[in-house]
Specification:
Chain A: Keywords: Autophagy, Lysosome, Membrane, Metal-binding, Repeat, Transferase, Ubl conjugation pathway, WD repeat, Zinc, Zinc-finger. The complex is a heterodimer of chains A (790) and B (492). By secondary structure, chain A is an alpha+beta fold. Chain A is 27% helix and 25% strand. Among the domains of chain A are: 316 residues, 7 Propeller (Methylamine Dehydrogenase, Chain H); 32 residues; 128 residues, no CATH class. The chains are: A alpha+beta (790), B mainly alpha (492). The interface between A and B is medium-sized, with 37 and 28 residues.
């Protein structure tokens, strides 16, 4: 065993051997401590106090120090420590405030040596001086630390923590006279053992109690502290002010912290609540533990490294009444399992994505998609080998840059602002929204609105006409940009093949992204043909290679034109709704679920020759005559909404949902609706469309959404004179008894909307200021500023 | 050991009690009577509270900031005798009622109603019925537990146990709530509910302990509320504090007597501080003292019920006369002494094994963020609150006294501190005070003005309110510790 031989040299002859093992104790442990020979461990708890010998294969109980018929509270240990100079000397801290020392050299069965009953409250911690044989330090709940000389009957000196409970005391390993103590209020104090009157230094380390601290075994100035605020902090004490050098965020309050021997940046922690594992952290890598021991079934209460120069053996005691020896090589390493990935948006819409290299290369096995090489380049991709961290896997970083203007979302903003969602009859709303969509060049959407109108509102002549119109129109243009934000940004990225020179391993780099995005054929050339009434004229070459998956509804029509003709997506739902075939909805379903939606659409579309619009109208008339109830379509409409939402156009989904209201709501489950609403509202808020988002919230029927408007509705105002918050009313300040906001025009108090100029900060009633600025461009207060009102 | 203070006062109690019993009998016939004092409390003269109030702008500010009803209610008025504490109290209460939390607002108020109903505290019930409706609660629920969703109804069991015998809560109770299919509680919701329950049980103790009067101003009562209020009879509204007769308020005790009592108490406190180290009590002795205190607490109340009126009589009374019971099931379930004779020995809760600071806080804060900090601050505040005065004396270190009060409450709930000598309780807390503590924390609805008046006669009212605050927080902490320990066990 190579590992063992290395250990042997490190320890100068006495090799440590052993395996991961555990033994059952009779009672929960509160603390453990190791003898300096690394062959024995003492376990102490409320009703246990035993010494175990650590053998190769198992723990062997060596001595039970809990003797006597009646259990005494003096034996109810909160902490235990074994002297690192003297193998026979132990000290325990009892929950009733007694400090007890034990001498294993005593011939009698009772090894109890001395009893110090000076503390009034529970003693939380005892600590021997690392080099002095007789000096013992204790820290108690009553706020005092006491230093005992074991040759005397009582304490040598008392240090007062100013009535705050002491949670931990630790002698510095390097500085003979120094010790650190941590407190329940979050402070850490540094004391000189010779000066009990005041502490040398004090600083606030944590928010809430600091449960533990540990001096670095080699680095003189480093002190690690762990607190209830779930943090481990490493402080550099050599500087004038204690400086935080590292900070590790754990998932539960930190009960113990111990530096790992021989590993400068490693420390082990365990928690007091909820989390039962022991973690070993590399403080330079504060988010993922370097190693994790998961043996315990209840919280771990004590941890100790078996030998001060051996980094591979860790002992631990737990509330689940077990004592464990952990071998470092058996630890689970969360890093191994994690797939480190990072994704971040830049200020201008750039997108950076980093992933582990191995991860990227497995994906690279897939073939890049054909057919998108001719697409315009949206992104440039740089590849950057990120600096490997402690010899871990290197990762690949890709940065996608946004080409100016290409990612414009102006259509989204325009649509959101101009859509009408309520307040008018359904037919008008649909017409209006269709018009809006058409003006923005989003014909598929326009078409959908028209369809909805046809389905849900009463028939009339006008509908037929507009239907005719929109069919012609709709079929004439290419696939509109229907994809979402994300997809939109990513999809073209796939097509882009340019890389900067320094990129390495580009073959795998372009495959990171979603495959589904390829199916969205964005084709800007489509714009040119807009307005042409003859869809057959239009040729779209992008569909190569996808015909085999087409769903052919009408084979005899489809075949001749198949390779050349493409009808836009709009034609697709239209066709199914109008052709009065019962299986229609199922077909749609099939297609919506298939990943190759656009491909199948392309084919379905191809059956529309010049005369299609005519036939469509006639069919629709027939439809009205039979008076199919709107319910008939609801499944279809729901599928349509889902389709839009899946495409990323959650705007459409939500708008339709609101406009149609009760007609479709019941067919879509609450959670999906809620999901759509929240994403749409989120988008709106990102574009600062507060009014629209508010309207959406208001119109939504989902409970979870409408309560968004009821949270944090308070608006706090500060007085303009004294700058204090105005608590009672918004216009009179309680402190300076002045009216805070006067209208510069009418000189009355403004109790509602107050509008002011950001240049001169004068203002007043909204109406008054508007009126004033119609006639004059100067400030109504007479300050001479040229105010602008926009 | 000097226990001079206890025997004369016990004798005095006895004298008073025959007198009192007569009054109580008489009083039962004339249930309807008006509270004796006006103002926020029936125990404290109005001027005491109001005086303190007018000076205090801070209180007004706090009320505006944190009050849910937006006005200065009687509880706040009485508490404003201790402004420092009031702030953390209001802040935490506001947080659990109004700020981000897993439970919907009306549910929070309904849980408060359920909690208060365990102690028949009509004051709190009325207050929250109001708020419940205001926050959009379904009026039908107010007809009783049968009308609420099963999920809320399931909370009844834990409410009952928490209020009266928190040590019986086990992880099975938690599991029953968490794993019941469609009606299950998520852990954050459960923690929120538990915090609310504990808060309102404890607040009920405060309301009865300080004799809070019902709110008077009629302006807030809308139509519905009037009806619901009218369902309670007047004696309920007055929290039964009015069973005192004017003839009783005349003090039977000489002032000299009580003065010497105070001196003796201070003397004992001083001695405890100084002589601590000399007295080497053995472990057995310490354990015995705790057991003795537990046992004695049992005796304390049985004595009291004996001389007020027979137990069963009292309970029947409660069930019949109050409409409050529709919010609870099993109204007969009450506090039962932790140290019952002749029953199997329940394991003592070792405070060091599950402390608020180490364990409770972490769990609460994990599941219901930020409430941990607020509660932590409140507990710390009440534990450390002192003006270094005792009655007319100044510059007194009251730490031992405060600790005795706090630990005595925990002792009655079976929580033991290893590092506390329960002999201190015996020396510092006179019998009448123990009776009061026991009543306020365990059967708050039975508190009477006589109990309030009979202890610490030399002390100021504000100091007695301070005692009530300590009792309230100690009780809340005890309940929380038991509930959270059960949740922790469920988690592991």
């Amino acid at each position: 065993m190579e590992k063992m031989s290395r250990v042997t040299t490190a320890l100068g002859g006495s090799a440590l051997t052993g395996r991961t093992m555990h033994c059952h104790l009779d009672a929960p442990a509160n603390a453990i401590s190791v003898c300096r020979d690394a062959a024995q461990v003492v376990v102490a708890g409320r009703s246990i106090f035993k010494i175990y010998a650590i053998e190769d294969e198992q723990f062997v109980e060596k001595l039970n120090l809990r003797v006597g018929r009646k259990p005494s509270l003096n034996l109810s240990c909160a902490d235990v420590v074994w002297h690192q100079m003297d193998e026979n000397l132990l000290a325990t801290a009892a929950t009733n405030g007694v400090v007890v020392t034990w001498n294993l050299g005593r011939p009698s069965r009772n090894k109890q040596d001395q009893l110090f009953t000076e503390h009034k409250r529970t003693v939380n911690k005892v600590c021997f001086h690392p080099t002095e044989a007789h000096v013992l330090l204790s820290g108690s709940q009553d706020g005092f630390m006491k230093c005992f000389d074991l040759r005397r009957k009582d304490s040598v000196s008392t240090f007062s923590g100013q009535s705050e409970s002491v949670r931990d005391v630790q002698f510095s390993i390097r500085d003979y006279f120094t010790f650190a103590s941590t407190f329940e209020n979050g402070n850490v104090q540094l004391w000189d053992i010779r000066r009990p009157d005041r502490c040398e230094r004090m600083f606030t380390a944590h928010n809430g109690p600091v449960f533990c601290c540990d001096w670095h075994p080699e680095d003189r100035g480093w002190l690690a502290t762990g607190g209830r605020d779930k943090m481990v902090k490493v402080w550099d004490m050599t500087t004038h002010r204690a400086k935080e050098v590292h900070c590790v965020q754990t998932i539960a309050s930190v009960a113990r912290v111990k530096w790992r021997p021989e590993c400068r940046h490693h420390l082990a922690t365990c928690s007091m609540m909820v989390d039962h594992n022991i973690y070993v952290w590399d403080v330079r890598r504060p988010f993922v533990p370097a190693a994790m021991f998961e043996e315990h079934r209840d919280v771990t209460t004590g941890i100790a490294w078996r030998h001060p120069h051996d980094p591979s053996f860790l002992l631990s005691g737990s509330k689940d009444s077990t004592l464990c020896q952990h071998l470092f090589r058996d630890a689970s390493q969360p890093v191994e399992r994690a797939n480190p990935e990072g994704l971040c948006y830049g200020l201008f819409g750039d997108l950076a994505f980093a992933a582990k290299e191995s991860l990227v290369s497995t994906e690279s096995g897939r073939k890049p998609y054909a057919g998108d090489r001719r697409h315009p380049i949206f992104f440039k991709r740089k590849l950057d080998p990120a600096e490997p961290f402690v010899g871990l896997a290197s990762s690949a970083l890709s940065v996608f840059e946004m080409e100016p203007g290409s990612g414009s979302m102006s259509w989204f903003v325009d649509t959101a602002e101009r859509y009408a969602l309520a307040g008018r009859p359904l037919a008008e709303l649909c017409d209006h929204n269709a018009k809006v969509a058409r003006e923005l060049g989003r014909n598929q959407v326009a078409q959908t609105w028209t369809m909805l109108r046809v389905i849900y509102s009463s028939p009339g002549l006008a509908s037929a006409a507009s239907l005719n119109h929109s069919v012609g129109k709709g079929s004439s243009c290419g696939l509109p940009l229907m994809n979402s934000f994300n997809l939109k940004d990513m999809a073209p990225g796939l097509g882009s093949e340019t890389r900067l020179d320094r990129s390495k391993g580009d073959t795998r780099s372009d495959t990171v992204l979603l495959d589904s995005s390829t199916t969205l054929i964005t084709n800007e050339d489509n714009e040119e043909t807009e307005g042409s009434d003859v869809p057959a004229d239009y040729l779209l070459g992008d569909v190569e290679g996808e015909e085999d998956e087409l769903y052919l509804l009408d084979p005899e029509h489809a075949h001749p034109e198949e390779p050349e003709y493409v009808l836009p997506q709009e034609a697709f739902p239209l066709r199914h709704e109008i052709v009065d075939t019962p299986p229609g909805p199922e077909h749609l379903q099939d297609k919506a679920d298939s990943p190759h939606v656009s491909g199948s659409e392309a084919d379905a579309a191809s059956l529309a020759p010049v005369d299609s619009s005519f036939s469509l109208i006639s069919v629709s008339h027939a439809l009205y005559d039979t008076r199919l109830p709107p319910d008939f379509f609801s499944a279809l409409v729901c599928d349509m909404l889902r389709f839009y939402a899946e495409q990323g156009d959650v705007q459409m989904a939500v708008s339709v949902l609101i406009v149609l209201g009760e007609r479709v709501r019941k067919d879509i489950d609450e959670q999906t609706q809620e999901h759509w609403y929240t994403s749409y509202i989120d988008l709106l808020q990102r574009f600062c469309l507060w009014n629209v988002s508010n309207q959406v919230v208001k119109l939504s029927t989902s409970r979870a959404i409408s309560c968004l408007n009821q949270a944090s509705t308070t608006l706090h105002v500060n007085c303009s004179h004294c700058k204090r918050p105005m608590s009672s009313r918004g216009w009179v300040c309680d402190r300076c008894h002045r009216c805070a906001s006067m209208c510069a025009v009418c000189h009355h108090v403004v109790k509602g909307l107050f509008v002011w100029c950001q240049g001169c900060s004068h203002g007043g009633h909204l109406q008054h200021i508007m009126k004033w600025l119609e006639g004059s461009s100067h400030c109504p207060a007479g300050c001479g500023h040229l105010c602008e009102y926009s | 050991m000097n226990r001079g203070g206890s025997s004369p006062s016990a004798a005095a109690n006895y004298l008073l009690c025959t007198n009192c019993r007569k009054v109580l009998r008489k009083d039962k016939r004339i249930r309807v009577s008006q509270p004796l004092t006006r103002g926020p409390s029936a125990f404290i003269p109005e001027k005491e509270v109001v005086q303190a109030n007018t000076v205090d702008e801070r209180t007004n500010f706090l009320v505006e900031e944190y009050s849910t009803s937006g006005r200065l209610d009687n509880i706040t008025q009485v508490m404003s005798l201790h402004t420092q504490y009031l702030e953390s109290f209001l802040r935490s209460q506001f947080y659990m009622l109004r700020m981000d939390g897993p439970l919907p607002l009306p549910h929070r108020h309904y849980i408060a109603i359920m909690a208060a109903a365990r102690h028949q505290c009509s004051y709190l019930i009325n207050m929250h019925v109001d708020e419940f409706l205001k926050t959009g609660g379904i009026a039908e629920w107010l007809n009783g537990l049968e009308y609420v969703p099963q999920r809320l109804k399931n909370l009844n069991e834990i409410n009952k146990l928490l209020a009266h015998r928190p040590w019986l809560i086990t992880k099975e109770h938690i599991q029953k709530l968490v794993k019941t299919g469609e009606n299950n509680w998520s852990l954050p919701e459960l923690v929120h509910a538990v915090v609310l329950l504990a808060h309102y049980h404890a607040l009920a103790s405060f309301v009865f302990g300080s004799g809070i009067n019902p709110e008077r101003d009629p302006e807030i009562s809308n139509g519905f509320r009037l009806i619901s209020v009218n369902n309670f009879c007047v004696c309920d509204l007055a929290n039964d504090n009015n069973i005192e007769n004017a003839s009783l308020t005349g003090n039977n005790f000489g002032i000299v007597d009580s003065l010497s009592e105070l001196e003796a108490l201070m003397d004992r406190m001083k001695r405890l501080r100084e002589e601590r180290e000399d007295e080497e009590a053995s472990q057995e002795e310490m354990t015995t003292r705790f057991e003795k205190e537990k046992k004695e607490s049992l005796f304390v109340v049985s004595g009291d019920t004996f001389h007020s009126f027979p137990h069963s009589d009292f309970e029947d009374d409660m069930i019949i006369t109050s409409d409050v019971s529709r919010y609870i099931e099993d109204p007969g379930f009450g506090y039962e002494d932790f140290a019952r004779r002749g029953e199997e020995h329940l394991p003592t809760f070792r405070a060091q094994d599950y402390t608020w600071e180490n364990h409770g806080f972490s769990l609460v804060n994990r599941l219901y963020s930020d409430i941990g900090h607020l509660l932590d601050e409140k507990f710390r505040m009440v534990y450390n609150l002192t003006y270094n005065t005792m009655a007319s004396h100044e510059d007194v270190d009251t730490t031992t006294l405060r600790r005795a009060l706090f630990n005595y409450v925990h002792c009655m709930f079976g929580i033991r501190y290893d590092d506390y000598d329960y002999g201190e309780v015996n020396q510092l807390l006179e019998r009448s005070l123990k009776v009061y503590i026991k009543t306020v924390t365990c059967y708050p609805e039975r508190t009477t003005k006589r109990m309030y008046d009979s202890y610490w006669r030399q002390f100021k009212h504000s100091e007695k309110v301070h005692v009530n605050l300590l009792l309230m927080e100690a009780r809340m902490q005890a309940e929380l510790l038991y509930a959270l320990r059960a949740i922790t066990r469920h988690l592991t």
